[in-house]
Write a structure and sequence with these properties.
- The chain is an alpha+beta fold.
- It has two domains: 68 residues, Glutaredoxin (3-Layer(aba) Sandwich); 98 residues, Up-down Bundle (Glutathione S-transferase Yfyf (Class Pi), Chain A, domain 2), CATH 1.20.1050.10.
- It has seven helices and four strands, in the order βαβββαααααα.
Length: 186
């Protein structure tokens, strides 16, 4: 198996952490994104990571890769928590993208919407429901880690001491430490 990644992608980090936690051997290939010459485009015209090649199978997007590996949560509550964590991460990623635009091209209304969405999701989270080794827990920790290192305008820790303690414990393990993204962002 070959996993195509960008070291800064929180979506790729979810799969990378799970692969390390489960000691599943995989070759990781770092690819450039938004580059018309990216080797990723040979297998996936979407040009998104993570992308897993397993023989002739090519899978893009976290839920599809989880399903392929047999790791998609079986019960509805866990799948719902995974969906919430991925929604949090997607919203923060597009919010971050808007913040990187020149000021005259930014949308304060859009940013307020994404801040409100992220706040609602986190305020509804009970960290005790998230097994930090399960896909939904890893996805939540990766979303929070993205905020911590690359989207610092959203101070998710404020007023969420229990969630912050859960996160700190989750990321202390080697699978998270081995996949820390580069420092950048807003």
């Amino acid at each position: 198996m070959i996993l195509y990644i960008s070291p800064g992608s929180p979506f790729a980090r979810i799969i990378r952490v799970l692969l390390r936690d489960r000691a599943l051997p995989v070759e990781e290939v770092v690819v450039p994104l938004r580059d018309p010459a990216s080797p990723l485009l040979e297998f996936s015209p979407a040009g998104r990571v993570p992308m897993l090649r397993d023989g002739a199978d090519v899978l893009v997007e976290v839920p599809l890769i989880l399903a392929h590996l047999g790791w998609l949560p079986a019960d509805a509550p866990s799948r719902g928590r995974l969906g919430q964590a991925l929604s949090l991460l997607e919203g923060i990623a597009v919010w971050n993208r808007d913040l990187r635009r020149p000021p005259e091209e930014q949308s304060p209304a859009f940013q307020a919407l994404e801040r409100s969405r992220a706040t609602r999701i986190l305020d509804g989270m009970n960290p005790d429901d998230h097994d930090p080794f399960a896909p939904e827990g890893v996805a939540l920790a990766c979303a929070l880690g993205y905020c911590q290192r690359r989207h610092t305008v959203f101070r998710w820790r404020e007023g969420r001491g229990t969630l912050a303690a859960w996160y700190d414990a989750a990321i202390a393990r080697p699978a998270f430490q081995d996949t820390i993204p580069p420092l950048s962002g807003i």
